[in-house]
Structures are given as structure tokens and as C-alpha cells.
Design goal:
57 residues, 3-stranded antiparallel beta sheet, mainly beta, T2SS_GspI_C, Proteinral secretion pathway protein I
Length: 57
């Protein structure tokens, strides 16, 4: 639920790591809660996942 003023909205977020764990697909959709219309907004992107270097003993 991510209402804006008088608008009843639903936000859907999806995170999915790639098979090698180096990338993450991020998807976000904003929908009207009371309407079966297409999304009002949609964002799809891929980001790199930074790994912390392992400490040497």
C-alpha cells in the first residue's frame, strides 16, 4: 500500500539475483488499487552487487 493523497495505490517490488550472484534485477510497479488498468508507473533496472573483499588471515 502506497497511497498518494486521495489516490489508493499499490506498489509492487520484485528483487531477483542473477544465477552468478553478480547482478540484481529490480522491478517496481505502481497500480491503482480499485482499478484493473495498466500500471501508472513501472521501473525495471539491473544493478551490480558489490561484494566485500574477504579478509586475509
Amino acid at each position: 500500500k502506497c497511497d498518494q493523497g486521495r489516490r489508493s495505490l499499490t506498489c509492487e517490488q520484485t528483487l531477483k539475483a542473477s544465477a552468478d550472484g553478480m547482478l540484481m534485477r529490480v522491478s517496481l510497479r505502481v497500480l491503482q488499487r480499485d482499478n484493473k488498468a495498466p500500471p501508472l508507473a513501472r521501473l525495471d533496472t539491473v544493478i551490480a552487487i558489490r561484494r566485500q573483499p574477504k579478509e586475509s588471515p
